[in-house]
Each structure stands twice: as structure tokens, then as C-alpha cells.
Design goal:
This protein is α/β, with parallel strands linked by helices. It has nine helices and eleven strands. Strand 1 and strand 2 form a beta hairpin.
């Protein structure tokens, strides 16, 4: 009897490959970890190959797993495009979406990939800028929707996800060697800039702004040079930089909340669908 690749198995496989952990994948697709494990075992039996190698931190794809992932992504994309077209459920149009640099680097690839599979005719135009600039663009109606940062204790807004702010520096570089402390921070009215300065002022630690930019790449480049320390969200901290929140000379930092804000007009079905997709997916990333 010939065996075939089932769409449900391939979809679960693609999620496991993306998040690299059965527990997180199970939570995202709404199955128990045991059921997901059985699915992956079934898929390995169908292709007669070992697809995953288990590690202490989760799972990684084997060489056959990497090869299957390429085929799975292509099959799922074509399947979803066909279903969207034939069912009439796929929405079309353009979304002008704003997002801070750090969230774009970490979250957007996952968010856009999944939304595109559901609505292949939709186009998302992304504008990256700090939250204050995104709010200005929303006021000018230059954006339809933006992902923005808010103080964690801002109870009046719908916080989708909370992210701690962290100090980052070049590995091995100690803040004690600097007086005043050189900072690489975003625009003066952003939460990371304000949080860094207020925390240092409360602690009585002298500092100077060595570099101010709305570009995350620019900030992290200066940190990599050993010229300054930065404050960014923990999720966006690059793997090659050190998180320094255990440094006794660096004061504690607050967490920030992530929410969505629409342009003042009535959002279209497409924009509301994208917003709902972000609300349901972002907490799981």
C-alpha cells in the first residue's frame, strides 16, 4: 500500500521545525504534546526517515528533515492558496503596517508567513520606526495599523504581550570601567531611552548619550564596537551580545507591553483579520 504525505501532518511538522520544541508547537496548533509527538512519529514512518534530533533545549531537524521542510513549505503554500481561492475566504488588498525595529526582526517573519498562507492575495507593506514615530504616522493616516510599545502598567490598553527591557553590552566588557556610562539609545521620547535614563538617575549613576538612533542595527553595531551599552527588549537581544541585568552597577529596568493601534478610520475586514492574527499568534512566539 502506498503512503502519502498528509497536509495535517506537514502543517504540524512545519510548526515544530519553526519553534524547535514540541511543547511550544503543541500550544500553537492546539494539540497535546503527546498527540503531536504521535503525529511526528507517523510522519517519520511515512517517509521512512528520522526527521528530528532531540536535544536538551528542544529538537533540531536532521538532514532528511531539512529536505522535507523545503517540500512541506511549498506544498502547504500551494494547498492554502488553492483553498483560499476556491473557498472565497482569502482576503485581498494592501495593509500599511508599522512596527518597531526590534519587533520586526523577531516577530514579523512568523506573523507574515502564517498570514500570507491564509490570505495569499493580501499585501502587507511594513514601515519600521519607534513607537512615537508610528503614532505620528497613524495620526497622519499614513498607516492602517501599528504594533506599538506601552508602559507595562498601562491598564487602559489591551496588552498582547509583555517584554522585559534589558541592558546589553559587548561580552567581557564591564560597565564598572566607564564613568560616565556611555549609552546607545533610541529616540529621546521612546520607552527604552526614558527607562534607561530614569533608572540611572534614580541610582545616581552618571551617564552620557554616546549614540542616539531609531535604528536597532545602528545601536547594536555601537555596542559590538565596545563603545556603549544599550537598553532593548530581551527578545531582540542578539545572541552575540551579553545581557547584563545581573550587573550590580546597572539598575533594574521595567517591562513594556506590546499592543496594536488602528488608524482612526474604520478598519477594513482585511486589516481586522491581520490584527486578530497578530493577537492570537504573538503571545505564542
Amino acid at each position: 500500500m502506498s503512503l502519502s504525505l498528509e497536509i495535517d501532518l506537514l502543517r504540524s511538522f512545519a510548526v515544530v521545525a519553526e519553534v524547535k520544541a514540541l511543547s511550544r508547537a503543541a500550544a500553537r496548533i492546539g494539540r497535546t504534546q503527546s498527540a503531536l509527538s504521535q503525529q511526528m512519529k507517523r510522519l517519520e514512518e511515512i517517509v521512512d526517515q528520522t526527521l528530528f534530533q532531540r536535544t536538551g533545549r528542544g529538537v533540531v531537524l536532521t538532514n532528511p528533515g531539512e529536505r522535507l521542510l523545503v517540500h512541506a513549505q511549498r506544498i502547504l503554500r500551494l494547498h492554502d492558496e488553492a483553498m483560499a481561492d476556491l473557498s472565497g475566504k482569502g482576503l485581498s488588498g494592501t495593509i500599511r503596517f508599522g512596527c518597531p525595529d526590534d519587533y520586526a526582526a523577531v516577530f514579523l517573519p512568523h506573523l507574515l508567513r502564517q498570514f500570507s498562507s491564509q490570505h495569499p492575495q493580501a499585501l502587507v507593506e511594513v514601515s519600521c520606526a519607534p513607537t512615537p514615530r508610528l503614532l505620528e504616522q497613524l495620526d497622519m493616516r499614513a498607516l492602517d495599523l501599528a504594533m506599538i510599545s506601552l508602559p507595562e502598567n498601562n491598564a487602559s490598553d489591551d496588552i498582547i504581550r509583555t517584554e522585559p527591557l534589558v541592558w546589553v553590552g559587548y561580552p567581557g566588557l564591564e560597565s564598572a570601567h566607564f564613568d560616565p556610562l556611555p549609552l546607545a539609545v533610541s529616540d529621546a521620547d521612546t520607552l527604552d531611552h526614558v527607562a534607561a535614563c530614569e533608572a540611572l538617575q534614580r541610582a545616581g549613576r552618571p551617564y552620557r548619550i554616546a549614540y542616539a538612533s531609531s535604528s536597532l542595527a545602528g545601536l547594536t553595531a555601537l555596542v559590538r564596537s565596545g563603545q556603549a551599552f544599550a537598553v532593548i527588549t530581551q527578545t531582540a537581544a542578539p545572541a552575540d551580545l551579553a545581557i547584563l541585568n545581573g550587573d550590580p552597577l546597572l539598575p533594574p529596568l521595567p517591562a513594556i507591553g506590546i499592543t496594536l493601534k488602528f488608524e482612526r478610520g474604520r478598519p477594513s475586514h482585511l486589516i481586522k483579520a491581520f490584527a486578530e492574527h497578530i493577537r492570537s499568534t504573538l503571545p505564542l512566539l
